[in-house]
Specification:
Elements lengths: L9 E8 L2 E6 L8 E8 L2 E16 L6 E11 L1
Antiparallel strand pairs: 1-2, 2-5, 3-4, 4-5
């Protein structure tokens, strides 16, 4: 999070498209907030900026209970 300098854990990358990415993360961010995404694989490091399109709590697949502090988030690149 570029404004606060805080790092968030990505639990899972749900989908990727040319215009954005869907993530499962451990924190809630408001729509419109700027984010910085970094990807590392071996010696390669890619960094890009985007904005939160939407963010919602994850529901447990086996019930209607909200997951343990996880959120689905759509990022516009």
């Amino acid at each position: 999070h570029p404004v606060s300098g805080q790092y968030f854990d990505v639990n899972r990358v749900c989908d990727i498209s040319p215009g954005g990415v869907g993530l499962k993360v451990n924190a809630f961010l408001h729509q419109g907030q700027k984010v910085r995404l970094g990807f590392k694989r071996g010696r390669a490091h890619i960094e890009m900026f985007g904005h939160v399109a939407w963010c919602a709590p994850v529901k447990d697949e086996s019930s209607e209970n909200v997951g343990a502090g996880l959120f689905r988030m759509g990022i516009i690149l």
